Amino acid sequence: MSRPRRWLADLGLGARLAVAGREGLLRTGLTALGVGLGVAVLLLAVAIPGILDGRHARTDARDDLRYGDPPPKSDTTVLSLPIMSAYHDRQVSGRFLRAEGAHPVLPPGVTALPPDGSILVSPGLQQLFDSPEGAVLRERFPQPIAGTIGKEGLSGPNELYFYGTRADLTADEDGVMRLQRYGSSSKGDPLSPVLLLLVVVIFVALLMPVAMFVAAATRFGGEQRDRRLAAVRLVGADTWMTRRIAAGEAVVSAALGVLAGAALFLLGRQFAERFELAGISVYASDIRPTPALAALIVVAVPLAALAMTLLAMRRVVVEPLGVVRKAVSRARRRIWWRLLLPLAGLGLLVPQMRDKAVRVDLLPTAFGIILLLLGVATLLPWLCERIVARLGTGGGVAWQIAIRRLQLGGDGALRAVNAVAVAAAGTIALQMIFAAAEGQNTRISQQDVTQAQAVMSAPLRGHALADVDAMLRASPGVTAVHSYRQSYAHLDDEHAFEVVVADCATLRLLADLPGCADGDAFAVDPASFANPEMAGDNATGSAGRQVDLGDGTVWTVPSHLKSAREHRDPSGMDHDGILLTPSVAPPDAEGRRVYALISVDLSNPDAVEHLRNAAMRIGPSADMSVLRSTDVDKTFASIRRGLFAGATVVLVLVGLSLLVGTLEQLRDRRRTLAALVAFGTRRSTMALSVLWQTLVPVALGLVVAAVLGLGLGAALLRIVSMPISLDWPGVGVVSAISAAVVLLVTVASLPPLFRLMRPEGLRFE
């Protein structure tokens, strides 16, 4: 037989051994499950560009925000009033429309405008309206529902969006736009160096543990494989033939794992539309992996299994009666080459540590992070071997069993724990960058939430100021309302100042007043205080003059203006014009705006929602905002939501990887477990030994992860010229989560452990 045919025959024998008998099928099934879980996550990761492209394409297609001169009225134009609202931290948005002709342009996902006074809603909004949780929101939009919006007009299946029609919309109404088409090709601003670095670290830190778990899963059943190969040697196979047989078995298991991962991915994609993670929902059709990257995964996973098997076989001498690896006097691991990976990673990152970072070089940064995280995986086995060898056999029986097991063959436990350690190191570095980025992208809003918790603004159209005030006060959960009317007075074409009308209690929130009674008028004008010669061009110098209120109304400014000092109101706005009490105010005029500073009892969970409902009744263009002490950049907030979603997926995978790895080790030692129980070892002792056997490598892994994670975080912060601050609370949180995962995995492995300790486990053929 020629050499290629002989090699193929050896590989084929390994493939048959992988699926031969009940043991072979079970072992291959565990390997395929482990590899499949990792492959499914990797396929999801390479589908992210398709998800983002699909969402952006649909939102760009419905974009109707226009700048510049409006188009002329025609048979196809429509008037559009954008509505931005919220419901319990979920965004609710849409448009009120009015056709100006017989053939109005239609937004994507809409086949015809609904009848006047009705609305079209997204499926997610329809579902919320129909549920008890959406009863308060339904009061805000009481219009009859004429249908649903198609997928083409929505960013995701759970988006809360609507289109409604109003016959009373006019082109001169505040916020109304005239449209002759929908769609744009908007391009977002480039990410700052810190946010770009954050995105790179997120992808590397989340995907590295997945890739390592896939590599570890290909080594499941290693000890049983060695025994089988010893039997093959007994019937005449040489060393290279046993390696080819092992390679064939590993490739078949990995290939089945790829198929299992693809099946899990396709199955999960069918249910993706039912879930929302970190405020993100996606259509199943958007979850499509990039073909080139998907092909790379399909090819790389079996090749990685082949490489891992051949690498592992180099340290194993398979003899007809056993394997040398089982001897206690095996060669000790060396550290020198294990230090090369983190040093090489630092070598890639150090040249980028400039005094002022203007950009982030993605390729060397990504490879530097990968090498540093791989350093965790290479240093952990060496550290675990040294520490475990010195622990001795003192302590309780459970401790002795666990330590002796780690001393004799802890590679299986370390392979599963490596993914946890790498994930912890990446998360620690990520926390450091995240904390720095949060400080850079979060600013103090200068809003005083102790005096008011919400602010509303609306055109004063069809309502008196007192009516607006009464409607807001009647909203459940509102404890106080301070409303004022705002307009602008024009001295000439170049000079104008703000005119505010409110009662004294409200005016005191807007400026420092010397005293106030009805009939008073105040000038808030710091420029005139500093330079009296400028009084002719500002509010103070306008006393007694006639001014234009902007809508043809001429009004004479009161001649006796008291001076008031400027300060920010609770919403963070400055007022530097004229403040008037009602008896000296100009007459109401259509088009002026009303503002209200509102105090809300936040112990009522629906208080803010009732307030938004009241604002909608005042006018569809009313804007109601909840005051916050800090503002977070929207791009940073989106990255944070994506991080939480990805971290959740990886955390679940890490837990499953530990569980599958633990079950594989228990199954491999079922006869030993059954023998220990037969000699009188208690089940609780065995359960505790399993916990120690997993917890000791995890604890050592977290030590290595903390050191390299903090070093990686410091290096990355130096790249973007950010101050280095060690995130000890973040290290503590990561350690606590890892310990919790280990505890949950141990609890989940108890039923199989007890089942394997039955006397039937002593049977052997």
Automatic annotation (TrEMBL):
Major localization class: membrane
Membrane-topology descriptor: Multi-pass membrane protein
Subcellular location: Cell membrane
A Pfam family of this chain: FtsX
TM regions (residue ranges): 30-52, 194-218, 250-272, 292-314, 335-353, 365-384, 413-437, 642-661, 698-719, 731-754
PANTHER family: ABC TRANSPORTER PERMEASE, ABC TRANSPORTER, MEMBRANE PROTEIN
Entry superkingdom: Bacteria
Protein name in the entry: ABC transporter permease
Keywords attached to this entry: Cell membrane, Membrane, Transmembrane, Transmembrane helix
Span of the signal peptide: none
ABC3 transporter permease C-terminal domain: residues covered: 201-315, 647-757
Protein species of origin: Dactylosporangium salmoneum
InterPro entries: ABC-4/HrtB_transporter (IPR051125), ABC3_permease_C (IPR003838)
